[in-house]
Automatic annotation (TrEMBL):
Organism placement in taxonomy: Bacteria, Bacillati, Chloroflexota, Chloroflexia, Chloroflexales
Pathway the protein acts in: Cofactor biosynthesis; molybdopterin biosynthesis
The protein, known as: Molybdopterin molybdenumtransferase
Family indicated by similarity: Belongs to the MoeA family.
NCBIfam families: Glp_gephyrin (NF045515), molyb_syn (TIGR00177)
Keywords associated with the record: Magnesium, Metal-binding, Molybdenum, Molybdenum cofactor biosynthesis, Transferase
InterPro entries per the UniProt record, alphabetical: MoaB/Mog-like_dom_sf, MoaB/Mog_dom, MoeA-like, MoeA_C_domain_IV, MoeA_C_domain_IV_sf, MoeA_linker/N, MoeA_linker/N_sf
Catalyses which reaction(s): adenylyl-molybdopterin + molybdate = Mo-molybdopterin + AMP + H(+)
PANTHER family: GEPHYRIN (PTHR10192:SF5), MOLYBDOPTERIN BIOSYNTHESIS PROTEIN (PTHR10192)
């Protein structure tokens, strides 16, 4: 494959791949404590009302709201105490006209009552009577049955990624296990004669394997299960054998290519041979990450990422991450973003999208984004950065002092 790429935009590249994806159809049942950030395999409905009984939201007195209408400091309403509702117990008393029952936050409201007067708005007359100095409306300071969620209501749709509050909500209705999509297995294959294991002292002309670790971490972040498949040499037969073996046990294959033109050409040739329809995109109008490859091999996505760590990470975030989300049936991620003022000019070329790492600094109550310039093989360019600023295709750069959107790492 020639070095002169037929580049497409990032959006077009993703569109070509996404229309060929099919959802993973394997599920597993997990306990709530193990389900954080997992994606639901099916819709979940509430098996019961929440709350299951009318509850007080304040310490105070359960009353009939009509008995407090018109109450004021100068003309309080006098109510007779009929008892107290014990926390965690059924209310075994009834509030009649002109009566009140002591209740506590979260406790059950007794039958006959329809509101709660805050204890701060009452005065004790004696052990059997209180005066109410402010009126309450029906339903005030209480939760009726099903106020939070009704039995049978849709709690979460298929594809929802479970957050901490979601797990609490499921526990509240008694759902202690959930069906989730099995994590997509992502085979990560590094290549290049110059690449050695991270625990090896590099010889002359060699570099440690950075991509396997960064790509594995990115895979976990979007719900995938990384499978490190080692480092393939710049030998066509060996590379193809390792790629075939890696793809055979995974849902997705990611090859981080060597830096030379010959290696990149060989990687593209091997990816094209793994299955149909083969390569969909070879070359994307982004910087860094231009030589990225997107392919499908008999229903499984295959990616050829540049060997330079910054390029590989940028391409992963743009193409592999959304693919893993879609395989799980999850929607687009709501990336953490912030707005900052650009500290320096960023030059760019129209016709490509530039992804520029920035470091965030607060100066006199203003957030500033300072570009961290560096070559795409310098991993510490990203280590020193807090996020990415994207320069659109149709712009020749961004000027200092402009307000920019920063996508946080």
């Amino acid at each position: 494959m020639p070095e002169l790429f037929h580049v497409v935009t990032a959006d077009e590249a993703n569109a070509r791949l996404q229309k060929l994806l099919t959802l993973l159809d394997h599920a597993e049942e997990l306990p709530l404590h193990a389900a954080l950030e997992r994606v639901l395999f099916q819709d979940l409905h509430a098996p019961c009302d929440l709350p299951a009984f009318p509850r007080s939201t304040m310490d105070g007195f359960a009353v009939r709201a009509a008995d407090t209408f018109g109450a004021s400091e100068g003309l309080p309403a006098y109510l007779t105490l009929c008892g107290e509702v014990t926390m965690g117990r059924h209310a075994d008393l009834r509030v009649g006209s002109g009566q009140a029952a002591r209740v506590h936050t979260g406790g059950m409201l007794p039958p006959g009552s329809d509101a709660v007067v805050m204890v701060e708005h009452t005065q004790a007359v004696d052990v059997k009577m209180i005066e109410v100095v402010r009126p309450v409306a029906v339903g005030e300071n209480m939760l009726p049955v099903g106020e939070d969620v009704r039995a049978g209501a849709l709690l979460f749709p298929r594809g929802h990624r479970l957050r901490p509050q979601d797990l609490g909500g499921l526990a509240g209705v008694g759902l202690t296990t959930v069906p989730v999509v099995v994590r997509p297995r992502v085979a990560l294959l590094a290549t290049g004669d110059e690449v050695v294991s991270a625990d090896t002292t590099p010889g002359p002309g060699q570099v440690r394997d950075i991509n396997s670790y960064t790509l594995a971490a990115l895979t976990r972040r979007v719900g995938g299960e990384p499978v490190l498949c080692g480092i393939a040499p710049d030998d066509k037969a060996t590379l193809r054998r390792m790629a075939v073996a890696a793809l055979a046990t995974a849902d997705v294959l990611v090859v981080s290519a060597g830096s030379s033109v010959s290696t990149r050409d060989m990687t593209a040739e091997i990816i094209a041979s793994l299955g149909q329809p083969g390569i969909l995109v070879h070359g994307v109008a982004i910087q860094p990450g231009k030589p990225t490859i997107l392919a499908m091999a008999d229903g499984r996505p295959v990616f050829g990422l540049p060997g330079n760590p910054v390029s590989a990470m940028a391409a992963f975030e743009l193409f592999v991450a959304p693919t893993l989300r879609r395989l799980q049936g999850a929607g687009e991620a709501l990336s953490a973003v912030t707005t900052a003022r650009l500290a320096r000019n960023i030059a760019s070329k129209p016709g490509r999208e530039d992804l520029v790492p920035v470091r965030l600094e607060r100066r006199a109550d203003q957030l500033w984004a300072d570009p961290v310039f560096g070559k795409s093989n310098q991993i510490y360019t990203l280590v020193r950065a807090d996020g990415i600023v994207r320069v659109p295709l149709d712009q020749s750069g961004l000027y200092a002092d402009a307000l920019v959107e920063v996508r946080l790492f």
